[in-house]
Design goal:
single chain, alpha+beta, three-stranded antiparallel β-sheet, 2 domains, 20 helices, binds protoporphyrin IX containing FE, 532 residues, globular
Length: 532
């Protein structure tokens, strides 16, 4: 080969030589790119062209559009299709639109779509050993062992923690209302402090003091950093667009190393403190993980969760609850538990301000539950609050905070009734934001209407069209905790205060284009008036 190049070179001038080399490289690159971008067209699959997808991702990275809007645009471009091809950079992915197909892929065909992404390299990303990112049997084992942490018995204990945190919020608000009987407040920030206290206590058994002393809450700062879209996360995504494994090869993680360091250290310190303190009766997530790790777990199977699919596979043998896995799982709970819960609570309170009649109906419902329960809303009473359930469900419909579901195709699968084969490695996306705002499934989607979830109407919702917590064996492990968390805060505020607009309340909440979840942009101001 070397001789051939030399021979050819002797016939052409050096400048012609360079032109030939550049042209050949260009031609090869063209064939490579052409093959990539024509992936779906060659297979006869309707698709959003790669050029459009790349342009959309760049608008997200430039902070001009939210990821939800982009997926909604793609969903609309594929109008009339059950699914369609899209691209993540140069790599093919599928956006599923049809609720029946969504159900099938998330639930029935789970064995072909059991991961969210290919297995990460934990040597590069030390926190990658968490439930979101774990794959295959290791995910199966961790999920199986962690599920009992969300059983009814454990939730009942956590409810007491939630109530303590809500009490602290109430004391803070009462102090603010002391002179005038009312106060104006950035409810987004306030609720996020409450959520920080709750999740710090539930995840690690630590007191974050975010409500009492927000300025000095280190954990809150770190969580903010974790979610911030900075140059690292932008670079990470640009590299991923070229090749999904490129960031890993270049040892780039989407967050600052200091964040990782802080979280590893705080988990390690908390573990050391717990070990020193001896066997604790507290059942925060870290304690449960430590118990599993030392094979002293006293957790029992949660009868409410169907683990049959999990049990269908091989449960991983051998020690997997390493320090990194424990840190990964527990910190993923911190992140999963903070932004979505505080965002949904904020949206819910904002809608209640916009709909005073709903606020009043909710207040009456809570009051009568209190009367029946000697003045206190107990864990068991939560399920009696039907209207609260409707209001919260409708908030999740209009604002599905975790609005994009992702799966990685783990083996070639033929689409039912079609010749198209989804190849191993193709990413699958579901935009709950687009589904929840599709008038086919939810008429007049911009209207906040809790009646969609009334006893008479709830059965009209098409299975697979309403998925605030995902579906199938990988649905949100903490769904019931999240609902309890949101409801406790709403009960506290609606019971003690009437919620109103103030001069700083916006007419329409804009979404933060820099957030990965659906999150209000900027502050959300409300006026709280103490009930007498
Ligand atoms: C409003 C609150 C929340 C919402 C809307 C929400 C939503 C979701 C969604 C949509 C998924 C993906 C499901 C799927 O792919 O099918 C998920 C997964 C997950 N969530 Fe949540 N979540 C919330 C709160 C929480 C909390 C409080 C925690 C932890 C304490 C948590 C922990 C997790 C974990 C660990 C997963 C990954 C589960 C797995 O892959 O096995 N989430 N959540």
């Amino acid at each position: 080969m070397g001789n051939l190049v030399e021979l050819l070179s002797s016939f052409v001038s050096p400048s012609l030589n360079s032109v030939l080399i550049v042209a050949s490289v260009g031609l090869l690159a063209w064939y490579y790119l052409e093959d990539k971008v024509a992936y779906w067209s060659k297979r006869g699959v309707p698709n959003v062209p790669a050029s459009k997808c790349i342009a959309q991702t760049l608008t997200f990275l430039a902070g001009r559009k939210t990821m939800n809007e982009i997926f909604k645009e793609q969903y609309q471009l594929l109008e009339g299709q059950k699914y369609g091809g899209t691209f993540q950079g140069l790599y093919p992915s599928i956006l599923v639109r049809d609720p029946a197909m969504i159900k099938e892929w998330l639930v029935k065909s789970f064995s072909s779509f059991h991961d969210r992404a290919p297995e990460p390299d934990e040597n590069v990303d030390k926190l990658a050993g968490n439930l979101f990112q774990l794959t295959g049997d290791r995910w199966r084992t961790v999920r199986h062992k962690m599920s009992p942490a969300f059983s009814s018995a454990k939730l009942k204990i956590m409810y007491e923690t939630l109530k303590d945190c809500a009490e602290e919020c109430n004391a803070h608000l009462e102090a603010r209302c002391a002179s005038k009987g009312e106060t104006e407040i950035d409810i987004k920030d306030f609720v996020s402090n409450y959520t920080m206290d709750v999740i710090g206590a539930c995840a690690m058994g630590i007191k974050c003091n975010a409500v009492r002393d927000p300025e000095n809450c280190e954990m809150k700062k770190v969580v903010k950093e974790m979610f911030a879209v900075g140059w690292r996360s932008i670079l990470f995504q640009l590299l991923e667009m070229i090749h999904p494994k490129l960031p890993e090869l270049l040892r780039i993680v989407p967050r600052q190393p200091a964040v990782e360091q802080f979280l590893m250290t705080i988990t390690k310190n908390a573990m050391e403190m717990k070990t020193k303190a001896g066997q604790s009766t507290r059942k925060d997530f870290l304690q449960i993980l430590m118990n599993i790790s030392s094979s002293e777990s006293d957790v029992t199977r949660d009868s409410n969760e169907d683990l049959s699919v999990l049990e269908g596979g091989v449960v991983h043998e051998g020690p997997i609850f390493t320090e990194n896995i424990i840190a990964g799982v527990v910190t993923s709970f911190l992140f999963a538990g903070l932004e979505p819960v505080s965002a949904i609570t904020t949206f819910c309170l904002y809608e209640l301000v916009r709909h005073p009649e709903m606020q009043e109906r909710l207040f009456q419902e809570i009051q009568s539950a209190r009367k029946e329960s000697c003045g206190e809303i107990k864990y068991e009473d939560l399920k009696k609050l039907r209207y609260l359930d409707q209001v919260v469900n409708e908030t999740f419909r209009k604002y599905p905070v975790a609005s994009i579901l992702a799966r990685n195709c783990t083996e070639n699968v033929q689409i039912s009734g079609e010749s198209v084969v989804v190849e191993k490695g193709v990413k699958v996306f579901i935009s709950t934001y687009a589904l929840h705002r599709d008038p086919t499934f939810f008429p007049d989607p911009d209207k906040f209407d809790p009646e969609r979830f009334s006893e008479e109407n709830v059965d009209k919702i098409i299975p697979g069209s309403y998925l605030p917590f995902g579906d199938g064996p990988r649905f949100c492990i903490a769904q019931r905790l999240a609902l309890m968390d949101v409801k406790t805060m709403v009960i506290t505020l609606v019971s003690g205060y009437t919620l109103h607009t103030c001069s700083k309340t916006v007419d329409h909440i804009e979404m933060d284009p820099k957030a990965f979840t659906l999150n209000p942009k900027g502050s959300v101001w409300l006026r709280l008036k103490k009930r007498i």
